[in-house]
Amino acid sequence: QSNIEITPGYAAELDKGILDISSFDSNEGGWRKGEFHFKSEPFMNVVREIERQYNVVIQCSEIPENALPSVYFTKDVTPLEEVLGQLCKPFNLTFEMGTDNVVILSKIKN
After folding, report:
1. Global model pTM greater than 0.85
2. DSSP the chain
3. pLDDT per residue as tens digits for the range 6-28
């Protein structure tokens, strides 16, 4: 084993035993300021991050097939209702704020 030092502006990723070191623009770290950008991300990945950031549980019985939402929010600035609107509208979903920090997503009934 050898030691590798990762300096600012570089990232390391271990995949199947292979260490890959790459550079990145440290100015793009909006997540450090509570900014979250999702562009064509798997639906449940976005849901899980919203749950973490807003301390809620999101229940969705009908996850849209192949749904890849694009959502942008800034924690502590963007209201949860606005974020849920961004998530739901493109997939014809609605949301209801339940009790105990539970949010229920469902298909809009025609």
Report:
1. no
2. ----PPPTTEEEEEETTEEEEEE--GGG-GGGGTEEEESS--HHHHHHHHHHHHT-EEEESSPPTT----EEEETTTS-HHHHHHHHHGGGTEEEEE-STTEEEEEEPP-
3. 777 777 777 777 887 877 655 55
